[in-house]
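Handoff note, outgoing to incoming analyst
You'll be picking up this chain. Sequence as last confirmed:
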Amino acid sequence: MPEDPLKVDARARRAAADVIGLYSRHAEKWDAARGAEVRIEGAWLSRFVDGLPPGGRVLDLGCGTGRPLGAWLLEKGFDVTGVDASAPAIDRARARFPAGTWLCADMRSLALGRTFDGILAWDSLFHLTQSDQRALFPVLGAHAAPEAALMFTSGPDAGTAMGEFGGDPLHHASLSPGDYRSRLSAAGFGVLDFRPEDPDCGGHSVWLARRAGAHPKLG
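Most recent structure output, in case you need it:
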């Protein structure tokens, strides 16, 4: 007998509300599972930083414990500001990588009052609900300097999917490609590339965009 859709929706809502709690409870386990080395992301990261000014400012949203992506960016000489809502993860990032700036904050309400040459949301934005993702794009635009690069991962099409980590359900959601393109355009970004389920990147669906013109004010 098929499961009641209302129960499925309720489970997804609970999991979406618990993403921060999950990554806080399991920060040590996630850190070990994620590892210290950039692997499948390497080619996309190289494309992301191509054209950024030397020593440019990069905002890493959902930075976790600072590795491997934040550490890779620091090694390349970039000025990294990492943001994550998991306090245990941020504590690890601060202890490991004092050259970076690590902030415990929710990306959905971010208002740093400064802009960045690159914004990265790798395997983080897709933990938000669809409505929260739509509301995030003006925030991204407000933190993007003219010609800033933006890279994030999503699902290949609109929908919600449930994973698992540490024995707890882990929420994922995605907009449709058309919806992402519309939101990006409204925030002042032009799409450079979108690869749904890129086989060379472990099946990640990756967006790369660039900001043009003056950035909108936050608020």
